Amino acid sequence: MLQHFSFKSLYENKQLPGWSISFFYKQVRYTGEYEPDGTINWIGNVPADEETVKKMIHELMLFHVYD
User: Fold this and answer.
1) One Pfam annotation, family name (predicted)?
2) What pTM does this model have?
């Protein structure tokens, strides 16, 4: 489960897609950029079970951004 998930727009114009994301997973902090097509560009560490984490992030972004 992701903890302390947060996101913010990469651009001053909030209508442009692209978000900076950060969260904790298994007590490790991860950061990245979430692109409009759903691609995640990791900054630093990549989670060992990346596909599972990506699914959780996609669900959260759909709920918070695209709702």
Assistant:
1) DUF5342
2) 0.85
How many structural domains are present in the chain? Answer: 1
pLDDT recorded at residue 36: 87
Beta bridge partners of 46: none
CA-only gyration radius of the chain, Å: 11
Q: What is the DSSP letter of 32?
A: E
CA 18, CA 1: separation in Å to the nearest integer? 23
Structural domain harbouring 8: 2-64
